[in-house]
TrEMBL record:
Keyword terms: DNA condensation, DNA-binding
Family the entry assigns: Belongs to the bacterial histone-like protein family.
SUPFAM superfamilies assigned to the protein according to its UniProt record, in alphabetical order: IHF-like DNA-binding proteins (SSF47729)
Name of encoding gene: hup_2
Entry protein name: DNA-binding protein HU
GO term, biological process aspect, one: chromosome condensation
Gene3D superfamilies: IHF-like DNA-binding proteins
Domain of life assignment: Bacteria
An example Gene Ontology molecular-function term: DNA binding
């Protein structure tokens, strides 16, 4: 499912216009993004949680040349599904 399909489903289920549903979805995405920037955890009970994780610097391999290269440390976002989501996937 892509964003336009999700917007249409939200509009239908919540009895909103597609524009209102798109604004609501954009607001949710913006708030999750801002929370990740502040290094906060976002918990959506029953759905899951988003957290920021640090990846340490490491040595990798250039796939074209095969020579070793240093990969710098970085941050990433991790998602841990909640029980209800796990149960829905494993029906």
């Amino acid at each position: 499912m892509r964003k336009p399909e999700l917007v249409a489903a939200i509009a239908d289920q919540a009895d909103l216009s597609k524009d209102q549903a798109a604004e609501a979805l954009s607001a949710i995405i913006d708030q999750i993004t801002q929370a990740m920037e502040r290094q906060e955890t976002v918990n959506l009970i029953g759905f899951g949680s988003f957290t920021q994780r640090a990846r340490g610097a490491r040595t990798g391999k250039n796939p074209q040349t095969g020579e070793a290269m240093q990969i710098p440390a970085s941050n990433t976002v991790a998602f841990k599904p909640g029980k209800a989501l796990k149960d829905a996937v494993n029906k």
